[in-house]
């Protein structure tokens, strides 16, 4: 019996060794048709490796490195600590993928110029200015939809350019999860812009946004003109915004044959 236990233990360790030393390029070639992302110029192993570029929907990340946690495989999950760069920023997180293909991102930290958001999404029609700082304890994606989030995203010195550059304010978005919905609370510092908005996102992409915005200085014509795009101006001089719609999934998963 002892010999059998030793043999099984050795076999398990050897299998684990094969898994963690398997070349990343070979592993990717076996599963790339089923992944929601494309990886280029891979190096190292699936345990510890690098990719020059990862394309995830509209997002493009560079100088990506990862370190997997092999023990997570014992419970059927894949867990990887990742660092990456945007054009001029940095991202770090731990990504967990379950057997049900749910993606849970923990300890997500992002610091980058707001302009880098335009390289991560083609859906942004304006030029963005300022700096983004995100600290998210957890973020969960299921079938491409955001279904849970906890943390804060700050947009410091926020400004946008359509025809002319309009300075907004320091903005903060607090995210939480309640009753299977992602709840966002948007606020501003109030130096140029007074902003307060509630955002609700359901697990099928349906969202509602209800907010009130106003310029701190009513003589700031440029900001007033920008606010008119958001909604109607009430008798109190504030702009009331009520919007709803459906966001598309961030990615699709090919189940293969």
Low-confidence stretches: none
Distance between the termini: 42 Å
Q: How many E strands?
A: 15
Q: Name the structural class.
A: alpha+beta
**What is the helix fraction of residues, given as a range?**
10-25%
How many discrete domains? 2
The shape is elongated
Which whole number gives the mean pLDDT?
84
Largest sheet, strands/sense/barrel: 15 strands, antiparallel
Structure report:
With 257 residues, the chain is α+β, with helices and mostly antiparallel strands. The protein folds into two domains: 1-85, no CATH class; 88-251, no CATH class. The protein is built from four helices and 15 strands. It has helices spanning 2-21, 24-31, 117-120, 221-230, and strands at 37-44, 48-56, 59-68, 78-85, 90-97, 103-113, 127-142, 145-161, 165-167, 171-178, 181-188, 193-201, 206-215, 232-233, 239-246. The protein has a 15-stranded antiparallel beta sheet that branches. It starts with a helix and ends in an 11-residue tail after the last strand. The mean pLDDT is 84.
Concise account of the structure shown:
The chain has 257 residues and is of the alpha+beta class. It contains 4 helices and 15 strands.
